[in-house]
Amino acid sequence: MNDILKIGILYSTTGPYGSMGRDARAGAEFAIAEFATESRQPVEPVFFDPQADLAAYLEGARHLLRAGCRHIVGTITSAARKEVIPLIEKHDGLLWYMCPYEGFEANENVIYVGGCPNQHLLPLFQHLTPRYGKRPYLVGANYVWGWEMNRLARELTINAGGEILGERYLPLEETAVERIIADIEQRRPSFILNNLIGPSSYAFHEAIRRLADRDGRFRPEACPVVSCDLMECELDDIAPGAAIGQLCAASYFDSVSTPENADFKQRVAAHFGTARRISSVFASSYTAMRLCVHAIVAAGGDEPSAVRRQLYSKDWATPFGALSIDSETNHAALPFHLGRINARNGFDVIASRPPVAADPYLTGRKKVASPRLRVVS
Question: N or C: which end of the chain has fewer CB within 10 A?
Fold first, then answer.
């Protein structure tokens, strides 16, 4: 196919999760820039910025579909994803979603490049519980991501014979965390699972640091704050030094030491400069866009069923390593990495696991030989 291929990009680059949206857009556009040097197939990105307004995501998806974009790479939050899926289903398009999410979804009109709980939360708890204990405190954003992640954490803890010491929620832009911090100080949990988003998460990390400064029992090595949604591009939004030592689970970190990532980082540095830190959302958005374009070209057109068949047909070279998409769930098999925030506003990888097949409904049917965590330090 030689006609101009229009691909929609739907990210909020302002608002409470604007740092993630800007990095995601940069990753998608970098994939298109690379493709322009590799192929004669012209690709035209069509961008819409909903500015973190949930209703505007639907407007944005409608605008992109009307502009001829049958494929849309985008949305950060689960709320936004769920908002646009019915419209994309109606028009038989494909949404390429690339953020970690809470699972319990597998839609034929969505390709899931971000991880689900058996790829982030479950191995995270397998690492934390024997090292810190079975008495976590749960905090989360007051929407589906926070609710579902904390529900699963509750089940994991109770099934392990543990106890949830507290569970609190905040709106996306709420930064008044003092009452939660006071409750944590009184209850003294083993660790804190942080499912807050954006400014709430940043304020929480800063407040925990102040608590740890006056009470060593809350220092990261004793009672860590652990997240599944904190990325390199956000660390500059947290007060300097406030998050050092805290933990995050992800399928990608800039510091992952693999040949595939070394090659990716070299190409990114040549395009953006050597100071560019690569976040998991940049790498995932890049990967989603690259998969999208290559599968469309291989299919000879943008018809979703043909594109999906191409996706399922082989493993794809990505910054994550060889990546496969499961034909039953439309999810990517992804590695697990546990990172510790360092003084350079990056992550040191302290444990890893090879790619594991997604099991979004936690049925156990996708269980493969369960690889053990490789602990680095």
Answer: C
Total domains, the chain: 2
**SS3 assignment, position 31:** helix
CA distance 203 to 174: 9
Residue 346's CATH number? 3.40.50.2300
Q: What pLDDT does residue 374 have?
A: 58
One-character DSSP codes across 143-159 = SHHHHHHHHHHHHHHHH
67 and 55 both lie in a single domain: yes
DSSP secondary structure string for all residues of 66-109: HTT-SEEEE-SSHHHHHHHHHHHHHTT-EEEE-S--------TT
pLDDT at 205 over 80: yes
Strand ranges, E, within 151-260: 166-170, 192-195, 225-227, 247-250
Q: What angle do CA 352, 154, 332 make, to 5 degrees?
A: 40
Q: How far is CA 318 from the centre of its chain?
A: 16
Q: Write phi, then psi, for 305 (nearest 5 degrees).
A: -65, -40
* Structure tokens given for 57: 């995501």
Q: For a pLDDT cut of 90, what percent of the chain falls above it? A: 93
Q: In terms of residue numbers, what domain contains 33?
A: 5-114+257-334
* CA atoms of 157 and 270, how far apart (whole Å): 45
Same domain, 206 and 249: yes
Any bridge partners for residue 193, and if so which? 138, 226
